[in-house]
Design brief:
With about 800 residues, the chain is an alpha/beta fold. It binds ligand 26W.
Length: about 800
């Protein structure tokens, strides 16, 4: 890299901004202000803001290259970024300048903000976590790069027709994407298929048996770079997402045969690899294209790091001194045999030498506890797509099982349990086992989750390597989820304790005394109520949904999954409705609530889709009922995404975190709500446990079975119908659904939901029903006292600083990566 001086940033002033903006509008967008569309002005604005970050980006990149510090590569199939404009404005400290500059041209920044289509390159928690982590790494000046996939279509757009979910493609790139930089000149070739050949290298004494991969077909990976700006620290890291293209040679060959249509087909075939994000969250479908995606991005990323980011001639025996590849769940785990292949086949390492390095380069984060979410790849498929990798996996497994036998003796049951290869119901590679064997560290994402990994899911491995296992509790970025999403609260907090909290969230502790200050509480309530007003306007504008303003805002937003128990929430609504309509509850005595749901279901997850329909139908009936609608309102805006969360979370009073204990690995929405001053009603699950410990029992509504209790019930045989028989309130609620109250009298519509609850009820909704209702009664009583409630809300804010993703990053740095921030 040369020492050419960098062009300096545009002038940091309103005039400077106006000049740069008009230049962009005229010279890049090719239009004039008078005729520019909203999209034209948005694109010009985005590029203007980008310019202010450009010099920092080049400086950061150059510093990494020159100093060659130990870096972190976060490998993730998902990065759920959310909109970029606001975050870039904030990082560059341009919010006021931009607003003023645009106003001077008769433009409204708020309108332009809304023109941005968010890149929905993730499903939910895991993808959003990756986005929070790279934000924190940049803000902490840690040398880090995110590697992932540039899906042409992100998570589907959800619509409702008659209350049922339909999916539409998400054309997020249609209007142009001003935040990405394509680098086709850095394309990487990725191979697939074919077969392997044995050959002997050297002669006589020195002869070694080696294996060579003869691939069947290849594609190109083109990197797209995205800026990851640190918060006002002069650093901008890189997120590199890969897009698949057909190789030039491939089309050319076919083209020469004169089959033009075939050449185009080949192109399409290659480009399919990064066409669409798989919308399955937690139940893998085992699709070939998904394995292609995983190998594709991981092969591109390793090649990129080794060939582009390390200096020429770097001795790969020392790779672990320069990088830790963090595996975000099992999706990138095929990187393990890929690195072995690179070292052994391409660089001539001996097997043991290569394993020594590989073992030290990877760390693995597990994000689930559900057995069905643990990825396995059929050996048949993996061997067909990646024959050399399968060979390598077999050898890793052989040596690993030798170690197991050496340590524990010939316990064949144990060996079978621990094997990387499962034999039943079909031969398959267990990716979590491969990851655990290869990783220096394995972590769960909340204390309880990490403990359950050690004690249950990966217990045999924890016995073998107790020191390998650790915990890093998840976090969320305070820049996006407090500072940007909640300007009112941010201003109030800053006025009280200064603005240091934005990068040092523990400082929120200094707010504690303000919880006892009536004036502060009054202003806190004012902020909450303004945030509710903003939400009401959003729902009206975006969805045409009208909801009342000043009611308790009770929110459950997350992917639709049975273990998360949206059914428990809707049964609560049904029960309130039933008791109001029957006169058991005096409507004038009920605290008015607005219940907001947001949830996408995996397109093939039938039960989840039924639950969505049930929620929508209950909402229709409740909202239309002359008496019930005086105090109850249900809203279910379609297509919940990061952008909606940014308005919804700051408005919430009550955060619903009601999974069956032992099933939610962590949750991160729970943290966002607490940080924005919502009180949680929740089970002892995931990070709820830590939230409750920190904010205190008096400021958290706990209910439900504990994990050991749920496990014990499951052990002795769970009988949901017993709860139905014994609890008249529950029975009435379920009977209403069964007899068609919410389906125009048609009993068949929600029969599958009801019979599932009465039959299997795998996640013990009925067992926790009464406890949940009792907790909701406590919520209601407490909410009647606004002073007490807002005191608790302020304490939730003050005591949740631990849930900053900056703290998560510090924990990863100390416990796993052993890397350091780059000094000035
Ligand atoms: C299709 C295969 C598959 C399997 C698992 C896709 C996605 C997954 C993820 C592990 C599901 C997921 O997003 N897990 C969530 O990760 C969050 C971040 O750590 C946690 O907060 C959530 O509790 C966990 O469900």
């Amino acid at each position: 890299m040369t020492d050419t001086p960098l062009i300096s940033s545009p002038e940091h002033s309103v005039e400077g901004f106006v000049r740069e903006f008009l230049r962009e509008l005229n010279f890049t967008q090719g239009t004039v202000l008078e005729r520019a569309s909203t999209n034209d002005t948005y694109l010009a604005l985005a590029r203007t803001v980008r310019h202010y970050l450009m010099a920092r980006w080049m400086e950061t990149t150059t510093a990494h290259y020159r100093r060659q510090p130990k870096a972190v590569a976060y490998l993730s199939a998902e990065f759920l970024l959310g909109r970029q404009l606001d975050n870039a404005l904030l990082a560059a400290d341009l919010e006021e300048i931009a607003a003023e500059a645009l106003a001077s041209l008769g433009l409204d920044l708020d309108v332009l903000r809304q023109a941005e289509v968010e890149p929905g390159l993730g499903n939910g928690g895991l993808g959003r976590l990756a986005a929070c982590f790279i934000d924190s790494l940049a803000t902490m000046s840690v040398p880090a790069i995110g590697y992932g996939i540039r899906y042409e279509y992100g998570i589907f757009r959800q619509t409702f027709v008659d209350g049922r979910q339909f999916e539409e493609p998400d054309h997020w790139l249609d209007n142009g994407s001003p935040w990405e930089f394509a680098h086709p000149e850095h394309e990487v070739t990725v191979s697939f298929g074919g077969h392997t050949e044995k050959y002997t290298e050297g002669e006589g004494e020195d002869a070694v048996e080696r294996s060579r991969w003869v691939p069947g077909w290849q594609v190109l990976g083109v990197p797209y770079n995205y800026m990851v700006p640190g918060y006002r620290n002069g650093r901008v890291n890189t997120l590199r997402l890969w897009s698949a293209r057909a190789t030039h040679a491939f089309d050319l060959k076919i083209f020469n045969y004169g089959d033009y249509a075939e050449a185009v087909r080949a192109q399409t075939f290659a480009e399919n690899i990064t066409k669409v994000l798989y919308p399955e969250d937690s139940t893998p479908q085992g699709k070939e294209l998904r394995l292609q995606q995983q190998y594709f991005f991981v092969a591109c990323s390793l090649r990129d790091f080794i060939d582009q980011l390390l200096p020429e001639g770097f001795d790969l025996h020392r790779l672990h001194e320069r990088i830790c590849f963090q595996l975000n769940d099992t999706h990138p785990v095929i990187a393990v045999p890929e690195l072995m292949r690179i070292l052994v086949d391409d660089h001539g390492f001996a097997w043991d030498e290569a394993w020594e390095v590989t073992r030290r380069c990877f760390a693995y984060t597990c994000h689930t506890l559900l057995p069905e979410a643990l990825e396995v790849w059929p050996v048949e498929l993996l061997g067909r797509l990646l024959p050399r990798h399968l060979e390598i996996i077999y050898r890793i497994n052989d040596e690993f099982l030798d170690e197991v036998r050496e340590t524990f003796g010939d316990d064949e049951l144990l060996v079978r349990r621990m094997s990387i290869i499962a034999e039943h119901p079909f031969r398959a590679v267990r990716m979590a086992h491969l990851a655990t064997v290869a990783a220096t560290k394995v972590n769960g994402v909340a204390e309880l989750h990490s403990q359950l990994l050690r004690d249950k899911v990966l217990a045999d491995f924890a016995n073998l390597w107790p020191d390998k296992f650790t915990n890093v509790t998840n976090g969320v970025t305070p820049r996006r989820f407090v500072r940007l999403a909640n300007p009112g609260l941010s201003a109030l907090v800053t006025e009280a304790i200064g603005d240091g909290w934005v990068t040092d969230l523990d400082r929120l502790r200094e707010l504690e005394p303000f919880a006892d200050d009536p004036e502060f509480r009054r202003r806190f309530r004012e902020v909450k109520s303004a945030n509710k007003q903003r939400l009401v306007e959003l729902l009206e504008r975006r969805d045409g949904i009208t909801v009342p303003t000043d009611t308790m805002l009770d929110v459950m937003v997350k992917r639709l999954h049975e273990y998360k128990r949206q059914t428990l929430k809707i049964l609560h609504v049904i029960s309130l409705y039933d008791r109001i309509v029957s006169g058991e509850l005096d409507v004038d005595q009920v605290v008015p609530r607005t219940i907001v749901f947001g949830a996408k279901a995996a397109p093939g997850y039938v039960m989840a889709k039924e639950i969505i329909a049930l929620i929508n139908h209950v909402g229709t009936v409740v909202n239309a009922h002359p008496v019930a609608s005086r105090v109850l309102h249900v809203a279910f805006p379609a297509n919940y995404d990061v952008t909606v969360a940014e308005t919804l979370v700051p408005a919430a009073d009550l955060s619903e975190q009601i999974s069956l204990a032992g099933k939610e690995a962590s949750g991160t929405g729970n943290m966002k709500f607490a940080l924005n001053g919502a009180l949680t009603i929740g089970t002892d699950d995931g990070a709820n446990v830590e939230i409750r410990q920190l904010v205190g029992d008096d400021h958290f509504f706990l209910f439900g079975l504990t994990e050991p209790e749920a496990a014990a019930i499951a052990e002795t045989g769970y009988r949901p119908s017993a709860y139905y028989e014994e609890n008249p309130t529950l029975r009435r609620a379920l009977d209403l659904v069964a007899k068609g109250e919410f389906s125009g009298g048609d009993r068949s519509v929600f029969e599958p939901v009801v019979s599932n609850l009465l039959g299997e009820d795998r996640f013990m909704v009925l067992a926790d029903f009464q406890s949940y209702l009792d907790a909701q009664d406590r919520v209601e009583a407490y909410y009647r006292d606004p002073e007490a409630w807002s005191r608790s809300a302020v304490l939730n804010v003050a005591r949740s600083g631990f849930f900053s993703s900056d703290r998560s990053m510090r924990d990863y740095l100390d416990r796993i990566w052993h890397a350091e921030p780059l000094g000035d």
